[in-house]
Amino acid sequence: MPGLTLLVALLLIGIVARSNLIAMAACVLLIIKLANLNFIFPLLERRGLELGLLFLLLSILVPVATGKISEREMLYNLTSLPGLLALFGGALATHLNGEGLKLLQLQPEIIFGLVIGSIIGIVFLGGVPVGPLMAAGITALFMELAAWLKH
């Protein structure tokens, strides 16, 4: 079965690197593949990122919903230096994520390098696995810089 070996490799890498998210994702995809539920793959490909981002935003916005962050604190933060830097950082990050999404659509095979690089970052640099999209965005930036330096 095509892709089976890579999924098993990702599962093992996730287990060895103690990255539950990578291991679980590989495991879920293996179950879908082995159960011959291939109709789920296009749905995941089209809407999986949106669903993941929805849950990420939900977890980040819980303090707003529970009242742990007040409107006054939010407004102050938007006018303070850290708040303004956060606005710039958010705009830059979303731009890079967009570039990463384009890169993943054009070269989906690059995902394996992104995952291995993320695992290296987790294991050796104490990083947090927030997903391959930002890694793809940074990779797209590096690729653009390399192309620019080449000329």
Automatic annotation (TrEMBL):
The keyword tRNA processing does not apply. Belongs to the UPF0756 family. It is found in: Cell membrane. The keyword Cytoplasm does not apply. It holds the Pfam family DUF441. It comes from Desulfofundulus thermosubterraneus DSM 16057. InterPro entries: UPF0756_TM. It is a multi-pass membrane protein. The lineage of its organism: Bacteria, Bacillati, Bacillota, Clostridia, Eubacteriales. One of its GO terms (cellular component) is plasma membrane. The chain crosses the membrane at residues 49-66, 78-98, 110-143. This is UPF0756 membrane protein SAMN02745219_00507. It comes from the Bacteria. Keywords: Cell membrane, Membrane, Transmembrane, Transmembrane helix.
